[in-house]
Amino acid sequence: MAKILTLPKRTQDASELLAAIAGGSETSLAEFYRLYQTRIYSFIVRRVHNGADAADVLNAVMMEVWRHASAFQGRSQVLTWVLGIAHHKIIDCLRRRSPHVALEDGVEESMEDERAGAPEMMAQRQDAALMHLCIEKLSDSQRAVVHLAFFQELSYSEIAAILDCPEGTVKTRMFHAKQKLKDCLVRAGAG
Question: What is the largest CA-CA distance in the chain?
Fold first, then answer.
């Protein structure tokens, strides 16, 4: 009889996976990768804008997890810890490209409702494209907080830990990002 695989509670089981990884369990690393690779890759590719570089950075992140799983102390969620590693690996990648390249971030494509008709789907695509254009007009630091807050669904304190800045800075960046997005959407006639 086939065993039904259920997704574990993320924080508890992810912490247990990290403990097992710290003990040298390759199986646990494979499970950790399976659970987190999509979210981590999404975070990376939206900032490096290149699939091959994103895959390289993802591999570097997983190597850091393998080497330093014992460093996780449980003071944050596992995803926050891993995205913090990814953030630093992204910076390294961008610096290798050009020492003057700033951090990049983007917006995820909107998920289309398969039941929507053609006009609704076209409107969704246009809205997503407009939002993407407006997000691209934000500063790099504002794009980063928007992506982490809205697409990774992280709290301001988790974002501050990932970006290695005070929580107040995250709140300020988000405030200004929201204002700029609102202004951009109003000017485009969508607001």
Answer: 59
Q: Is residue 125 domain-shared with residue 69, that is, in the same domain?
A: no
Phi-psi region of 49 (alpha: psi -120 to 50; beta: other; left: phi over 0): left
Cα–Cα dist 151/168, whole Å = 20
In one letter, which amino acid is 7? L
3-state helix, strand, coil in the chain (%, to 5): 70, 0, 30
CATH number at residue 133: 1.10.10.10
**Residue 34: which domain range?**
10-97
Burial class of residue 187, CB neighbours in 10 A (0-12, 13-18, 19+): exposed
Q: Tens-digit pLDDT profile for the chain (191 aa)?
A: 444 434 444 445 888 999 999 999 999 999 999 999 999 998 888 888 888 898 999 999 999 999 999 988 888 889 889 998 998 898 888 888 775 544 433 333 333 334 445 556 555 566 667 777 788 888 888 888 888 888 788 889 889 988 889 999 999 999 998 899 888 888 876 55
Q: Which residues contact 26 (CB under 8 A, 6 or more apart)?
A: none
State the sign of the Cα–Cα–Cα–Cα dihedral 164, 168, 172, 174: positive
Looking at the structure of the chain, the number of domains it has is 2
